[in-house]
Amino acid sequence: MATVEVDQDLCVGDQICASMEPEIYEMRDDGLAYVVDGMEEIDDDDLIAAAKDAADACPVDAIIVEE
Ligand code: F3S
């Protein structure tokens, strides 16, 4: 199990996360990324790996994935 969070205080709206993994991350009207409803806690190994890939790609390290 992993928890996924986006720190909107750090996010600069780069959109890499949402374009890489739209199942997990979405852009909202404020121009910032959020975790898609229901994806704050994920069990699936492939999804956890995908969440981490996007976290690694974020230029400002605004995404926190904790196992
Ligand atoms: Fe924001 Fe990083 Fe995604 S800056 S939009 S959390 S890639």
Automatic annotation (TrEMBL):
A GO molecular function held by the record: iron ion binding
Keywords from the named record: Electron transport, Iron, Iron-sulfur, Metal-binding, Transport
The protein's role, per its UniProt record: Ferredoxins are iron-sulfur proteins that transfer electrons in a wide variety of metabolic reactions.
Gene: fdxA
Name used for this protein in its record: Ferredoxin
Keyword Signal listed: no
Keyword Heme part of the UniProt annotation: no
Cofactor(s) recorded in Swiss-Prot or TrEMBL: [4Fe-4S] cluster
